[in-house]
Write a structure and sequence with these properties.
- By secondary structure, the chain is of the alpha/beta class.
- It has a single domain, classed as 3-Layer(aba) Sandwich (Rossmann fold).
- It has 7 helices and 5 strands, in the order βααβαβααβαβα.
- A 5-stranded parallel beta sheet has the order 2-1-3-4-5, with helices on both faces.
- The chain starts with a strand and ends with a helix.
- 44% of the residues are buried.
- The model has no long low-confidence stretch (mean pLDDT 97).
- GO terms for molecular function: hydrolase activity, acting on ester bonds.
- This is SGNH/GDSL hydrolase family protein.
- It holds the Pfam family Lipase_GDSL_2.
Length: 211
């Protein structure tokens, strides 16, 4: 059976739109886009979504474990062999406290692709392919965590072009999720159940096209 590892942040984990800062909730497996996608394809799924994860930085508030570079190494050495890796990160990298440009955020994604495509990791899994998903841009000024995402939309709208160019240079598949879904106006960051379903369909379709 084909094995797919989905590596991301709270929107891969399945966090619903937040109604209060600091709350923890999670959609059930029947709602989350990775499980819906894997079910549609008939593939085995490994879920690696961590709320707060960035592509390349530890977080001054949430801790060093938010660094996706370390997280991806751990995930690829914890699971396997896999046939596909789906990476969807960048939303948290656009937080105000990181002060990152869209180009710098894309650099973090490039580092993750370096890890995934390294001879060591490819040999460990017997070779696997990568789908890079660019998350939809955040909305600003709404919900309980709005203060963390000042300026995030401006950075977010620049990412699809940069991610697509990066994916092309690395020979990996690409999907711009912002062409399919949008974040919830409840908190400006997370996906509601309907958008999880739409993203699952889009990822499944892209993977079928790449098969």
């Amino acid at each position: 059976m084909t094995v797919i590892l989905c590596f991301g942040d709270s929107n891969t984990h399945g966090t619903p739109p937040m109604q209060a800062e600091g709350e923890y909730r999670r959609f059930g497996a029947e709602v989350r886009w990775p499980t819906r996608m894997a079910r549609a394809l008939g593939w085995e799924l490994v879920e690696e979504g961590l709320p707060g994860r960035t592509a390349q930085w530890g977080d001054a508030v949430m801790g060093p474990i938010m660094n996706g570079i370390d997280g991806l190494k751990i995930a690829l050495q914890s699971h396997g062999p896999i046939d596909w890796l789906v990476v969807m990160l960048g939303t948290n990298d656009a937080k105000a406290r990181f002060g990152a440009s869209a180009e710098l955020i894309t650099g973090g994604i490039a580092a993750l692709l370096d890890i995934a495509q390294s001879p060591e990791m490819q040999a460990r899994h017997g070779g696997f392919r990568v789908l890079l998903v660019c998350p939809p841009p955040a909305l600003e000024g709404v919900g309980p965590i709005a203060n963390q995402f000042h300026g995030a939309r401006r950075r977010g709208v620049e990412l699809p072009r940069l991610y697509k160019d990066l994916a092309g240079s690395r020979g990996v598949a690409f999907l711009d999720a912002g062409q399919v879904i949008q974040v919830s106006p409840v908190d400006g960051v997370h996906f509601d159940a309907e958008n999880h379903a739409l993203l699952a369909e889009a990822v499944a379709a892209e993977l079928r096209a790449e098969a």
